[in-house]
Amino acid sequence: MKRIFQTAALLALGLTSLASASEKPNILFFLVDDMGWQETSVAFGPERTALNDVYETPNMKRLASEGMLFTNAYACAICSPTRVSLMTGQNAARHKVTSWTLRKNVAPRENTKVLLPPKWNLNGLQPPGSNVEATIEAKTLPAYLQDLGYKTIHVGKAHFGAKDTPGANPSNLGFNVNIAGAHMGGPGSYHGDKDFSAVWRGGGAIWSVPGLEKYQGQKINLTEALTLETIAELKKTVKEDKKPFYLYMSHYAVHAPWEADRRFIDHFKKKGLKGQQAVLASMLKSMDKSLGDLMDTLEELGVAEDTIIVFMSDNGSPKNCKRNLPLRGHKISGYEGGSRVPMIVHYPGITKKTTRTDAPIIIEDIFPTFLEWAGMKEIPQNDGLSFDEILNDPATDRSQRPLFWHYPNSYDQPAFSSVRLGDLKLLYWHATQKLELFNLKDDLSEENDLAAKQPEDVKRLAKLLSDHLRSTKALMATVKKTGKPVPLPDEVL
């Protein structure tokens, strides 16, 4: 789909714009960390919930009023896999970065009572030719966008590759500019007067956010500091570079540690919120203000109509938070609360105001979509499917396109693989080798297991999931009792 620019109107006003001159839109991908499906005043579910009235995200509402809500958008259930899928267009079963990364050659501690974890790519994503063990090497989304004439800007959380590997630095993965991105999946602190570090609490320098030294010692929130740096870079880019930009605004918020944004915490306490929920509300408000500040900046620079904005979260809300009902489960879980995420797309001149779509999409779909928007003629092979056509037709039928998840690890939550096809979702639990079947249209909360009642659907989806795992050469854990790999879903029927 080609972008519709208001060229005649611009010429009539004697104005020109970066994107209209090149016919390549700017792309702002605003990714939030650990934000649940309902942790917003925008209702993504069929009905408003209590959380929609607790949290305040007016700029998300503003963006939604101008664009399209994706009510069936998914990421992986945990952070590093989502981010590698974004960068490569590969499903987690294929790229094999299936849990979170941090230290080189060191995996997170797992529950090994029943299963021994596979040798997954614990060092994460690396640029081609790195020759680092236990990694995937790939040319990335921003690297391809560079080839298409884009300036690529990374801000905030990276978490692509382990510490002391090339992939720990976003500049090695296709970004012209890297602001505060490194190996870690969370900040040491959100407070400038704690130097954005965990050293003050004995957490070690490995969590310290780099590149923001000028804010250290100040009573400023990390989210605000990142936003100020982003605005400065945007102004420079639009004024000096004269080329389209890809801005990956990847906030550390609202990932732990739970530290209040001092600008907003008293407001939520006065509303009656207490403890961690009040802190989370202030962090969400802080993130939302950043979104609004960036939208305002695009308008001030005269490029708002030339910039596509995509808002998304990298996985569901952690178990420390209030449940995102009606969804079951939480971050890392195989249930919907682990992977269903809020998503909004505003494509000026294309998306109609205040529209919604139920068409399912998943994180690897970002890769081909952004490259299509950037004008790439032949998209590199990937596991995604562009959702561009959905922007023109919210009723686009994707009921026959399967979505897959694969988590063969046992960090915090049980290992699982799953597939969604249409309204049906099949979950396979590796340790117990149990299959569960849910109809998400009738049972969004995944309370009614239909496996015994619909054996033919179980068999059909088990084969579909197993074929995917075979074709991607997915890694499976080892059953301690037998010393053999966990069997595939169609092998236990």
Search tags:
493 residues, alpha/beta, Alkaline Phosphatase, subunit A, Arylsulfatase, C-terminal domain, 2 domains, 20 strands, 16% strand, Sulfatase_CS, Arylsulfatase
Short note summarizing the structure:
The protein has helices at 7-12, 18-22, 50-54, 58-66, 79-88, 92-95, 141-147, 222-241, 265-270, 275-300, 336-339, 366-373, 388-392, 455-471, and strands at 26-32, 68-70, 73-74, 115-116, 125-126, 136-137, 151-156, 177-179, 245-250, 307-313, 340-341, 343-346, 355-357, 361-362, 403-407, 416-421, 424-429, 434-439, 478-479, 484-485.
Question: Any overview of this molecule?
Answer:
The protein is an alpha/beta fold. The protein has 2 domains: 19-392, Alkaline Phosphatase, subunit A; 403-491, Arylsulfatase, C-terminal domain. 27% of the residues lie in helices and 16% in strands. It contains 14 helices and 20 strands. The protein has helices at 7-12, 18-22, 50-54, 58-66, 79-88, 92-95, 141-147, 222-241, 265-270, 275-300, 336-339, 366-373, 388-392, 455-471; strands spanning 26-32, 68-70, 73-74, 115-116, 125-126, 136-137, 151-156, 177-179, 245-250, 307-313, 340-341, 343-346, 355-357, 361-362, 403-407, 416-421, 424-429, 434-439, 478-479, 484-485. An 8-stranded mixed β-sheet has the order 8-7-9-1-10-12-2-13, with helices on both faces. Strands 15-16-17-18 form a 4-stranded antiparallel β-sheet, with helices on one face. Strand 15 and strand 16 form a beta hairpin. Helix 4 (58-66) crosses helix 10 (275-300) and helix 8 packs parallel to helix 10 (275-300). The N and C termini lie far apart (44 Å).
